[in-house]
Specification:
This protein has twelve helices and five strands. α4 runs parallel beside α6 and α6 runs parallel beside α10. By secondary structure, it is an alpha/beta fold.
Amino acid sequence: MRKQSHRSRAVLAVLAAAVLGVTGCDAVGGNSPAPSGTEAQKAKPSPKPTPAWDSSPASVAAVGDSITRGFDACSVLSDCPEVSWATGSSAKVDSLAVRLLGRAKAAERSWNYAVTGARMADLPGQMAQAAVRKPALVAVMTGANDACRASISAMTSVADFRADFEDAMSTLRKASPKAQVYVASVPNLKRLWSQGRTNPMGTQVWKLGICPSMLADPDVLDAAATERRDTVQQRVEDYNEVLEEVCAKDRHCRFDGGAVYDFRFGTDQLSHWDWFHPSVNGQARLAEIAYRTVTGKKA
């Protein structure tokens, strides 16, 4: 999750890693007596059946940030979309699109609109781009950059995060009312810090500007540093709660249940360029989580 800046100074933002439900009520107007008994049963509309989830969608569009672009997975400070967990073509990853569509169809029927450095505020625009393709499934992974800021005060507020996600889902629904949506949770940034800080090269690369709110002064363990990291972690958990709640209001949306957040990324799953973004192996693990969520039975 890298914000664009001069090549000489890499400003990154993070790793790894909808919508409005409407309720109604019936009313009896005027002085007419309310229907009762059999009449009441006839007057009461039948509940609409829950739409079946298609575990074999015919096309996939991906939106999000640098994780979905495969940033730092193949070379330093560069996107590598061929290893993207969502739409990549690499056999080492076996992306969500390849698992669902097969390699040949995935090349023709999957699209990646994620942008390195993107935050939740950028998601409505990405959704608008994806909707043009009329995808059967939209894969979403974003939010880490909202927590990975220069300081904790610069993190996206929970209220703004919610409003932007609802806006993104509304944008998609206007163009594609029945498109299915897979939503990945935001990764556990504190765990990524705890794993990467053991590597001297990683801590040096972090000084270039990767997720300062969490990774600044990685070896400092005093009360202030601990409180800062805990504040970032709490914000990530709040974001995940928003993702789950907003997704639950949409009849065609599935949240991963916190699977990406809960995944215990080890050093093998981290980029050996920055020790924070997913490596090729990490991208493969994200693809597995997404595939299980999309093809599994909804709890």
